[in-house]
Design a protein that fits this description.
alpha/beta, Rossmann fold, five-stranded parallel beta sheet
């Protein structure tokens, strides 16, 4: 049975997920699903005091991403229209494990599994990674006020958490292709050849197996 392409782009904060997603969406004529970030009213407080505001922050993200995926399932994937998202819903667990206290995490995990049990799952993953210096530089350049207080130590931990998550993801989902991109070596914003290289990898996966455009 052929699957409608549903591509998710993931990686730590500042790595360029949205920028790449936009370019891929334009090239392959896919619907772009962008995560809600700055609209989260707790995010600025979260970076000031993670312990105090982590549960509210993570619950807001979870509920909004659930609603987004529900809409995408009804209006696009359900109608055989291809989608690329600049996040994977599983990222919620990456952040929750890092920031929530044990009892909070147990409650959060229960809610997460209930909400995501029947949500559409991507059939291709693009994983962007980059050095801590590159991430910090890009966060500074884009100048989001809510991100100005991100600590380098928190970002480094998050980067390691993502690497662990992606390694586990590939083991648990051998049928879902993962395209890994080194953001230090490939500049898909300024270098067209680098972007073409990534687009070619995506196209090869689209032509394989059961994923069709």
């Amino acid at each position: 049975m052929h699957e409608v392409p549903f591509i998710a782009v993931e990686g730590p904060i500042g790595v360029g997920k949205t920028s790449l997603s936009k370019k891929v969406a334009n090239h392959f004529q896919l619907h772009l699903l962008k995560e809600i970030v700055e609209e989260n009213p707790f995010l600025g407080k979260f970076y000031d005091d993670i312990d105090e505001w982590s549960f509210q922050t993570e619950m807001f993200f979870l509920c909004n991403r659930y609603k987004q995926l529900e809409d995408i399932d009804s209006h696009y994937l359900g109608l055989k229209k291809a989608v690329i998202a600049d996040y994977h819903i599983s990222k919620n667990m990456i952040f929750a494990k890092r920031t929530l206290k044990h009892r909070q995490f147990e409650k959060y995990q229960q809610i997460y599994h209930i909400l995501t049990a029947d949500m559409p799952k991507p059939n291709m993953m693009i994983y962007l990674d980059a050095s801590l210096d590159t991430l910090l530089s890009r966060i500074s350049m884009r100048g989001r006020e809510v991100e100005m207080n991100i600590q380098a130590s928190y970002l480094q931990q998050l980067k390691q958490d993502y690497q662990t998550f992606m390694d586990d993801f590939e083991k648990q989902h051998p049928d879902i292709p993962v395209i890994r991109i080194n953001g230090d070596k490939l500049d898909f914003i300024k270098q067209q050849d680098d972007l073409n290289f990534i687009l070619d990898q995506i196209n090869q996966q689209l032509q394989k197996g059961e994923i069709i455009r």
